[in-house]
Design goal:
22 helices; 7-stranded parallel sheet; 12% strand; single chain; alpha/beta; 586 residues
């Protein structure tokens, strides 16, 4: 049992046993065997073996060991010899035989591409950035220097952030296990913390640092973003749009650059419906204008002009120069107003879309990749199941539901919620990086990474799985009692919820504050809980086909293999309970 503010948890036996096995910390008197992939991935590959803990059967989630010898320099090695050296992955003669028949050389050559590469990465203390650093260092310890752009007032502060937020983070425990007492020395030999501010000209980089980057960097990965749906318009535009522009300007100066990769979001597509293709945005594009022209509307919205949007912000702020009140409320209102005028649901997706437009217009002669993940959830497998940082999109609702604070929400139960495990996003990033970094062909390449078109998860299915978990392993409140939950009920509007609550027993919502939270979450997530589009992943599927079998094992992003019930019940919610939930999840 462990404490969570005013709540405690009875830890599910499967959760603890799985973590213990995955960490390879199993007492000698326990019998454990592993076969990859984990049980959260359903496919024709061998099913995971059971782990026996004092005769209690538990499925293992041990990720497949990484294979450093898969590179072009050793292409002459026979397939049989390669299969033998991969005994940690191919554990039976039949598996080795299948491997020998299906292995197709180096595939994309991901591991070899990473060798000796110097990279510049932004957003390195965030969820995606940290996972990317961990996977690169673990899969290719012979990578070059990783220049990590970190915000801070000075070098000392940035060094401290590197130590506490990256080197000492639990996420890197597998790397610690590999390097032992030399772990910190290894990390410091690879990671170069750089004082940076994406909102400033030249990214706030000192001239000497700029020169080092321009002379040495082979790959740039842009993970930084302001992800608040209700951010001030000036702040969001400066980070998500102008920040992207500043980074491309730096990329164009880099003498050795092989690929520029930008992590965006699939929701730059706004409220498009049907099967949404992996196509780029161009300067002037507008969802509202696109819809008006498709329906032959008499009123065609104006072309989206990023320069004009910047002027509107400037004029608004100058017009408030004599006003002593904070400009924040007006800037938030302006962001939502401008987003809706041009057809986007919120300032986040709006400014990210403009960022893509800028990248596309400035990088014609660079190998350029934009990866668009959907809603990113906890890791399903790598480096261990259930790791997450911060409450992601649907998680606040899951948390409040588990605490018994409400069991009603505004959503269409049959709506597809496009969720994708974080480690699959990272693997897709690395695969696309190797593919286009190796080819050297200039041009823009778009990849959606999501599940809605291949392995859809409905909103009502998600909360049925949540009910199963919290019903079996309930929270314990401040009085030491189990929190009783009911199944989630969905309504079209907040007014319908109010009618339902007033007609029922008193106390369905424990406090007035709960209704306030419910209202805020409903408004914030409405664009996603009623979304009508499905994201095409044709380019991602083509990318997977180019991968060797070894690469598909180590860098999998086969979303069709996800078992949603198992992922939600046994991985994602246990991950939330361990890494995130506090007494107040607002």
């Amino acid at each position: 049992m462990f404490s969570l503010g005013h709540f405690s948890f009875m830890s599910p036996p499967t959760m603890n046993a799985t973590r213990l096995a995955a960490a390879n910390q199993v007492p000698a008197n326990y019998s454990v065997s592993f076969i990859s992939p984990p049980h959260h991935l359903r496919s024709s590959t061998p099913q995971p073996a059971s782990c026996t803990f004092n005769s209690f059967p538990v499925k293992s989630t041990q990720p497949a060991p990484l294979v450093s010898m898969v590179d072009r320099k050793r292409a002459s090695q026979s397939k049989r010899a390669l299969a033998v050296t991969r005994a940690g992955i191919l554990t039976t003669p039949k598996e080795r035989e299948v491997f020998e028949e299906e292995e197709d050389g180096c595939g994309l050559g991901i591991v070899e591409f990473l060798r000796d590469k110097n990279m510049l990465i932004t957003g390195t203390t965030g969820f995606v950035g940290k996972l990317l650093i961990e996977k690169i260092l673990r899969s290719q310890p012979d990578v070059g220097k990783l220049f990590l752009l970190i915000q801070g007032p000075n070098q000392e502060a940035v060094n401290e952030r590197l130590k506490h937020e990256i080197i000492n983070a639990e996420l890197f425990k597998r790397l610690k296990g590999v390097h032992g007492s030399s772990y910190e020395a290894f990390m410091l030999s690879k990671l170069v913390p750089v004082v940076a501010h994406l909102g400033e000209d030249s990214l706030g980089l000192e001239e000497k640092v700029q020169k080092d980057i321009v002379d040495n960097v082979d790959v740039i990965v842009s993970c930084a973003a302001n992800t608040r749906f209700d951010e001030r318009y000036d702040v969001a535009l400066n980070t998500n749009t102008n920040g992207a522009s500043r980074l491309v300007k730096l990329a164009r100066r880099c003498r050795k650059l092989q690929v520029f990769l930008h992590v965006s979001t699939a929701y730059v597509n706004g409220p498009r419906t049907g099967l949404i293709k992996e196509r780029p945005f161009f300067l002037g594009d507008s969802i509202a204008r696109e819809e008006a022209m498709a329906t032959h509307s008499q009123e065609i919205p104006p072309i989206l002009d990023i320069g004009e949007e910047t002027k509107i912000i400037k004029d608004t702020l100058e017009g408030r120069a004599e006003n002593t009140a904070s400009p924040t409320p007006r800037m938030k209102e302006l962001g939502l107003e401008r987003a809706k005028i041009h057809g986007w649901q919120n300032v986040y997706s709006f400014t990210k879309a403009m960022g893509e437009m800028v990248i596309g217009s400035m990088s014609n002669d660079l190998p350029t990749v934009i990866v668009r993940p959907t809603i990113i959830g906890s890791t399903i497998q790598d480096p261990f199941p259930g790791w997450i940082q911060g409450l992601r999109m649907a998680d606040p609702v899951i948390v409040y539901y588990g605490k018994g604070q409400f069991n009603v929400f505004t959503a269409e139960g049959k709506t597809i919620l496009d969720l994708v495990p974080a480690d699959m996003v990272i693997n897709a990033i690395l695969a696309a990086m190797a593919r286009h970094g190796s080819s050297g062909v200039a041009g823009l390449n778009i990849y959606h990474v999501g599940t809605s078109s291949t392995n859809p998860l409905r909103v009502d299915e998600l909360f049925n799985h949540c009910y199963e978990h919290f019903h079996s392993f309930p929270l314990i409140d401040s009085q030491g009692k189990f929190v009783h939950i009911e199944r989630m009920n969905f309504f079209d509007t907040l007014e319908a919820i109010s009618s339902y609550l007033s007609a029922g027993e008193n106390g369905r919502l424990k406090k007035a504050r709960d209704m306030h939270i419910l209202r805020k979450l409903s408004v914030t997530y409405e664009p996603y809980t009623s979304y009508k589009g499905r994201f095409d992943i044709a380019n991602a599927k083509k990318l997977m086909k180019r991968m060797s079998r070894v690469e598909r094992n180590i860098f999998t992003f086969d979303v069709a293999a996800i078992d949603w019930r198992d992922y939600i019940v046994n991985v994602h919610i246990p991950g939330l309970r361990k890494h995130i939930i506090s007494g107040d999840a607002s």
